[in-house]
């Protein structure tokens, strides 16, 4: 009864002055949602997030001179068919790999060299599902500093722009080793490879990067290990100015690596960092580049 009365009343009488009596044509279309995105060079005071939350970024900017974790290098866009999907690109998808590849190239330009050769990492944040449904297609690419080779990220003061150019303050060179030793006297599990000056006593040195091949699912540990050893050994030998046989004959120097994680694999990143590793307690005081068959400079 009440509904009928109200409907009846709504159709009676004259239009109010200044109106046409038609309520249906007066609604304005809702404006498209707007999202705040960070700008290149902005520093963020927060741990890494796997997805880009606009509210998080708005709350987190900090002056780069103060301690921070992330530094924005690129704000990209998920394009093409990937941008038409109902949700943001998942890890391992073509869309995610495209964003990671673009991020990696942008970071290289920003820091002035291949970031894999530095105490650096990259972070790709894609939109969260909610903002994605609202139309957000931006992703945020950032660079961060490492305290040691095996760590995720560290707080940094100042910008990382140009960190691998010129005197390359963030380049990996010589490293202090922390870990256990086995019964045979060689290293067991390593927990830290921390950068130090090459004139400071050290037990490891960065010799370069290699790339492992392969596609599909993340390989088993033994397969990845073989791929890495097969490719890292020649790099160490060449760095020292040795043939493979000469390097094999040395008992005081081996190798260790910082390998490909499942996240890197899913992102299409196949880079591995290779290091020359010295006998526990044998601390060199200079670089072993071109050392040849001479003894360690302890």
UniProtKB/TrEMBL annotation:
InterPro entries: Septum_form (IPR026004)
Organism domain of life: Bacteria
Location of the Septum formation-related domain: 41-274
Protein's name in the database: Septum formation-related domain-containing protein
């Amino acid at each position: 009864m009440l509904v009928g009365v109200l409907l009846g009343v709504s159709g009676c009488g004259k239009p109010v002055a200044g109106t046409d009596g038609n309520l249906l044509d007066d609604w304005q279309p809702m404006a498209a949602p707007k999202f705040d995105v960070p700008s290149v060079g902005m520093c963020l005071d927060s741990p890494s997030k796997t997805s880009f939350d606009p509210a998080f970024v708005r709350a987190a900017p900090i002056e780069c001179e103060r301690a921070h974790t992330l530094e924005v290098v690129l704000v990209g866009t998920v394009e093409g068919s990937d941008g038409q999907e109902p949700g943001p690109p998942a890890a391992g998808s073509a869309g995610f790999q495209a964003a990671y590849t673009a991020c990696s190239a942008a970071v290289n330009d920003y820091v002035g060299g291949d970031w894999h050769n530095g105490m650096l990492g990259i972070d790709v944040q894609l939109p969260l599902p909610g903002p994605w449904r609202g139309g957000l297609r931006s992703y945020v690419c950032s660079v961060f500093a490492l305290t040691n080779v095996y760590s995720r990220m560290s707080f940094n003061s100042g910008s990382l722009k140009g960190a691998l150019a010129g005197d390359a303050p963030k380049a990996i060179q010589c490293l202090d080793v922390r870990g256990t030793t086995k019964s045979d006297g060689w290293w067991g599990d390593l927990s830290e490879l921390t950068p130090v000056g090459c004139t400071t006593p050290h037990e490891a040195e960065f010799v370069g990067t290699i790339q492992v091949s392969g596609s599909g699912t993340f390989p088993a540990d033994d397969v990845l290990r073989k791929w890495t050893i097969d490719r890292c050994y020649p790099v160490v030998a060449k760095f020292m100015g040795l043939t493979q046989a000469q390097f094999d004959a040395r008992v005081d120097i081996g190798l260790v690596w910082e390998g490909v994680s499942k996240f890197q694999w899913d992102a299409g990143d196949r880079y591995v960092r290779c290091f020359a590793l010295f006998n526990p307690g044998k601390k060199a005081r200079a670089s072993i580049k071109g050392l040849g068959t001479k003894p360690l400079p302890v």
